[in-house]
Amino acid sequence: MEAQDKQQNRSQQQLVDDFPRGLGCCGWVLVILSGLLMVMTFPVSIFLCLKIVQEYERAVIFRLGRITDKKAKGPGIFFVLPCTDSFVKVDMRTVSFDIPPQEILTKDSVTVSVDGVVYFQVSCPISSVANVSNADSSTRLLAQTTLRNVLGTKNLAELLSDREGISHSMQAALDEATDSWGIKVERVEIKDVKLPQQLQRAMAAEAEASREARAKVIAAEGEMNASRALKEASLVIAESPSALQLRYLQTLNTIAAEKNSTIIFPLPIDMMNLFMNRK
Questions:
Q1: Residue 46 in domain
Q2: Which of 92, 108, 130, 217 is the 20 to 30 Å CA partner of 20?
Q3: Residue 236: what pLDDT?
Q4: Are residues 75 and 148 in the same domain?
Q5: What does pTM read for this prediction?
């Protein structure tokens, strides 16, 4: 990442260095005349020559149509000559915009509607002014085409489950394309994926069937575990007659508490053992 940033800075610096600086004889004559005009109209001209840009802005100055310095001016106060100098303000703050919903055909031939949001920032004010007519509008249009191109190589399952990977792929593609414009794409996010109604109903039916199958499996496992526990309990009770007597009394107590109208005639457990032995 650091090597990529260094390469980007070198390319931007090389681009700035390639701008022609010479004004020529006529240009210098006009600059001198502009300076004399400023001196003659002083102090009124001071209001036309001093400009201010905010902390989040930079000013790219043009003198007779040529960029004067290798670095943009600002923030604060800077000086321009009347008649010969002009400047363009560039906002350096992070800008976000929504990608309108795009109808996209996925790799497995499913039509979906996808929208997103992009965050970008101007990294080189001179390149954003000199290399592209409208950096903001160009980045918006490029984001729409990049979204369609990237999602066209994904199937529906990847689109629904791997949004983070898709966002990173879009960010890398946009950042590479806008490098020469002086734009740094900071983040790309997929906001919403709208599926056709028929596909939504099919996926809902599939999910419901999967939940029912899982519920039946869980119920069967519960019954199996319960039967094993009953078997172990019966073995413990068979080994201890006193445990059988306690269980018998507990059952009588439960029946008496739940159904008060029932008349219970408890029999000694020994009598029941006689019948069991005869059998």
A1: yes
A2: 92
A3: 72
A4: no
A5: 0.62
Residue-number span of the structural domain to which 217 is assigned = 210-278
Whether 10 maps to a domain, the answer reads: no
Residues in the chain with pLDDT values less than 50:
1-4, 6, 8, 11-20, 279
Number of domains in the chain: 3
Which of 74, 91, 108 terminates a domain? The answer is 91
**What is the pLDDT, as a whole number, of residue 76?**
87
Same domain, yes or no: 181 and 217: no
- Secondary structure of the chain in HEC code, one letter for each residue: CHHHHHHHHHHHHHHHHCCCCCCHHHHHHHHHHHHHHHHHCCCCCHHHHEEEECCCEEEEEEECCEECCCCCECCEEEECCCCCEEEEEEECCCEEEEEEEEEEECCCCCEEEEEEEEEEEECCHHHHHHCCCCHHHHHHHHHHHHHHHHHCCCCHHHHHHCHHHHHHHHHHHHHHHCHHHCEEEEEEEEEEEECCHHHHHHHHHHHHHHHHHHHHHHHHHHHHHHHHHHHHHHHHHHHCHHHHHHHHHHHHHHHHHHCCCCCCCCCCHHHHHHHHHHC
